[in-house]
Write a structure and sequence with these properties.
The protein is mainly α. The chain has one domain. It has helices at about 1-10, 10-145, 150-160. The radius of gyration is 64 Å and the shape is rod-shaped.
């Protein structure tokens, strides 16, 4: 060992003091610098890892939301199409109902007018018959130059029937 000390000019007491100083500095640096820095770096690594995990989770939720949005839009389009088809169908049904009701109303009006015409026709025929009978009576009176009364009317009817 002495040869080592003479070759390198080392003083053993000084060397041991330096090792002790180095150990003390190393311990102080370990407890006051390395450990807090290590702890901060570990916390930061955890935050970064958590952020990356959160970002992946957000990305997956975003893709799920996109898929759900597309599904909702597709369902809404399908529902809108069904509503439009239903509205068109109901509109056509309503139109048919209105046309049928209008036809029925027109039929009722026509029937009522036909009945009025029949009544008017019957009244006109009745009036025409009465007027014709009166004209016939007047004509016959002029021809016979005498007024026909109930007795003569009966005589005339009997003569014509024979």
């Amino acid at each position: 060992m002495e040869s080592l000390v003479s070759v390198f000019h080392l003083d053993l007491k000084l060397f041991i003091a330096q090792i002790i100083n180095f150990s003390i500095v190393l311990a102080v640096l370990y407890y006051f610098a390395f450990k807090p820095i290590s702890k901060v770096m570990e916390e930061r690594s955890q935050k970064i890892e958590k952020s990356l995990n959160d970002a992946q989770e957000i990305a997956s939720k975003l893709s799920e939301a996109e898929i759900e949005k597309k599904n909702i839009i597709a369902e809404a389009k399908k529902a809108a199409t069904e509503i439009l088809e239903n509205a068109n169908f109901q509109g056509e049904e309503k139109q048919k109902e209105m046309i049928n009701k209008a036809k029925e109303d027109i039929g009722q009006i026509i029937n009522a007018e036909k009945a009025k015409i029949q009544i008017e026709k019957a009244e006109t025929l009745k009036a025409l018959k009465a007027e014709t009978a009166e004209l016939v009576v007047l004509t016959v009176e002029k021809i016979l130059k005498e007024k026909i009364n109930g007795e003569k009317d009966q005589e005339l009817i009997k003569n014509l029937v024979k």
